[in-house]
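Sharing a chain and its predicted structure for anyone who wants a worked example. Both blocks are below, sequence first, tokens second.
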Amino acid sequence: MAETTEKQTVHLAVYDTMADWEYGYAIAHIQSPEFQKVPGRYEIKTVGETLAPVTTKGGVRIVPDITLGQLDPESSALLILPGADSAVTGGIAAFAEMAARFVAAEKPVAAICGATAALAQQGLLDERAHTSNAPEFLAMTGYQGGSRYVEQPAISDGNVITASGVAPIAFAAEIFRILDLYAENTQDAWWQLFAEQNPAGFYALMQEQSQEQSQEQAQEQAQEQAQ
């Protein structure tokens, strides 16, 4: 039987024109208990600048669960910042300021696409390895971290994850690692399936699920016999 633990909250920042495809893999699998080391350990809550509904780039209407003013880094497992049309022009500055508070509290932050520019404007990428859509994209912010830019889809440095807007799968994988969501072999199989489109990953996950179910059944039978 899988161990139980107190549920922790992953906060998803929501704002108008946020890019639907950039966070989907991450939150869908965080919310799905299958294959997790501790099933159901995390929940997702959305956080808006206010409680007014926002509309994503795809036209989906989202009503935030809480406001930025109610968000305490100490009560969060992670803050996810999707990209948005307004991110580069300061439209999500308040969320970047909250990200700085998370980093100061040694809590993880994950930013993708335009949200990486918002972090750069806060100085959060000046001293750590990071990535984005392109070096030139971040250079427009005037930040001082250009020498730390890494040409790869997603990267973690300490408690800060950054990713290109066309790398939602790699972004999700870094999030899973920082949350310790999956065992290493599960993470490898997940990557095989979703990133490489390799059916071997699917079969590995199915085999793992079958073994876990068999172990749970054996434990339940042992408990019944002991009663």
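Comments welcome. Strands lie at 8-13, 42-48, 54-55, 61-62, 66-67, 78-81, 109-112, 154-157, 160-163.
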